[in-house]
TrEMBL record:
<keyword id="KW-0333">Golgi apparatus</keyword>
<keyword id="KW-1133">Transmembrane helix</keyword>
<dbReference type="InterPro" id="IPR051523">
    <property type="entry name" value="KISH_domain"/>
</dbReference>
<keyword id="KW-0732">Signal</keyword>
<feature type="transmembrane region" description="Helical">
    <location>
        <begin position="52"/>
        <end position="69"/>
    </location>
</feature>
<comment type="similarity">
    <text>Belongs to the KISH family.</text>
</comment>
<dbReference type="Pfam" id="PF06842">
    <property type="entry name" value="DUF1242"/>
</dbReference>
<comment type="function">
    <text>Involved in the early part of the secretory pathway.</text>
</comment>
<feature type="transmembrane region" description="Helical">
    <location>
        <begin position="6"/>
        <end position="32"/>
    </location>
</feature>
<protein>
    <recommendedName>
        <fullName>Protein kish</fullName>
    </recommendedName>
</protein>
<dbReference type="InterPro" id="IPR009653">
    <property type="entry name" value="Ksh1"/>
</dbReference>
<dbReference type="GO" id="GO:0000139">
    <property type="term" value="C:Golgi membrane"/>
</dbReference>
<keyword id="KW-0472">Membrane</keyword>
<keyword id="KW-0812">Transmembrane</keyword>
Length: 70
């Protein structure tokens, strides 16, 4: 099944996308200057990762435990 039809996979993809965009914004800040259009999506994901980092970390930890044990 694709990640769109399986909620667990969808959450995993979203969390990985947020974490990846946040990391890449720290490494390559010029790529994330555009706030509209296609690259604006990555800017917004990086902003979520910066602002909600404790919640994203808890989500990643919970998803990791769920992938390993369930």
């Amino acid at each position: 099944m694709s990640a769109l039809f399986n909620f667990h996979s969808f959450l995993t993809v979203v969390l990985l996308g947020i974490c990846t965009c946040t990391y890449l914004k720290i490494q390559f800040p010029a790529f994330f200057e555009q706030r509209t259009g296609f690259r604006g999506f990555f800017w917004k994901a990086a902003r979520i990762g910066e602002r909600l980092s404790p919640w994203v970390a808890v989500g990643c930890f919970t998803m990791g435990v769920s992938v390993i044990f369930f």
